Amino acid sequence: MKLTTRGRYAVTAMMDLALHAKLNRITLAAIAGRQNISLSYLEQLFRSLRNAGLIKSVRGAKGGYMLARSEKEISLADILIAADEHINLTCGGGSTCNDADPCLTHSLWTNLSQEFFEFLDSKKLSDLVRSRHVQTMATQQDVTSIGDIPIHISSKIG
Amino acid sequence: MKLTTRGRYAVTAMMDLALHAKLNRITLAAIAGRQNISLSYLEQLFRSLRNAGLIKSVRGAKGGYMLARSEKEISLADILIAADEHINLTCGGGSTCNDADPCLTHSLWTNLSQEFFEFLDSKKLSDLVRSRHVQTMATQQDVTSIGDIPIHISSKIG
DNA sequence: TGAAACCTGAGTAAAATACTCAGGAATAGA
DNA sequence: TCTATTCCTGAGTATTTTACTCAGGTTTCA
User: Fold this and answer.
1) In CATH, what number is assigned to the domain containing residue B45?
2) Which of B12, B42, B15, B16 is closest to B29 using CA atoms?
3) Measured between alpha carbons, how far is A51 from A78 in angstroms, rounded to an integer?
């Protein structure tokens, strides 16, 4: 019952995109620098986000990423599912349980999964980036940056 | 973002206790048989549940387990936390984030964690065992059992 | 006393996670 | 057309977590 770093990075990266990509394309290197995430790992992650249709990309020099749809139309559920490929709260199914011969908690997990999904789906990217704390952080990141590489983050561990 | 089998087993076992332990102590062997869970694994799991104060045990012959408090006072959150030791939806903290120098999504995860906890805490064991499907299953398990070992489950994989 | 049950610590195979790496393909601008 | 920039892809790998097993101990009832 925990979130993987993959899921966390995905949300962080999407917030970064939403905050900084008002007009321009954003490069992975910029996000990697600002959020202190390995570039290679981000590339792998953005593959998933792109396959899920959450972001668009432009190749080549001056290329980069942007949101594929409006901030209001992207939910936490969208991002986490894209990143992890599942929000798996079910009983697992497989050999020990199926619809014909369900386990004791089968319908319980099915219902919970549904409720949890609706909970995460109600949290939109637009809500997330509107919080005061996030706005403050984003501004700091812009101010202390030289080009795309922020100074104050360089002391953190990669 | 998924539930481990440990968490699933914990909930299943607690439901089993709630359904069958109206008066008597229930042995681990009985639960292991009915729910098709390895006895050794259950023992390890029940250690956690007992340390968390969710169940009481009586040693020796005729011993067994029972709920430590009323079904209404045990929530899904209680069980999952006891089993997994965390419902970890936070940003992880550690070297890349702390309260003094929080990451972009720090407060986001803190808030989400809280909301998710409240969601799970609102689901009480008494609600879970009241569902029609669970009642039906539990009755079948009693009827088809010889002693404590159910027949219709024996074909499943352990 | 001995069987039935809980109790404990330690170990281990398999799976998942969190990355890295090497190189290819598209595009902008010189 | 060349070169730098950027996305794109497949494959590999160390570490951590999960899901379990095992060997033996302790408590209690009859």
Assistant:
1) 1.10.10.10
2) B42
3) 12
Q: Domain span at residue A28?
A: 5-150
Is B155 within the bounds of a domain? no
D16 C1' to B34 CA distance, Å: 32
Residue of A nearest to B130 (CA): A108
Mean pLDDT per 10-residue segment, chain A (158 residues) = 85 92 87 92 97 96 96 95 74 55 70 83 90 71 37 21
Lookup: nucleotide whose C1' is closest to B63 CA? C5
**Alpha carbon distance A111, A113 (integer Å):** 5
Q: Is residue A28 part of a domain?
A: yes
Q: Are A153 and A36 in contact (CB under 8 A)?
A: yes
Residue A103, C-beta contacts closer than 8 angstroms, at least 6 positions apart:
A91, A96, A97, B12, B35
The tally of domains found in chain A comes to 1
Which residues of the protein have their beta carbon within 7 Å of strand D? A 2, 26-29, 40, 43-44, 46-47, 50, 57-65; B 4-6, 38, 40-41, 43-44, 58-63, 84, 158
Is B75 within the bounds of a domain?
Answer: yes
Q: What is the pLDDT of residues B22-46, one digit of tens each?
A: 768 999 999 999 888 999 999 999 9
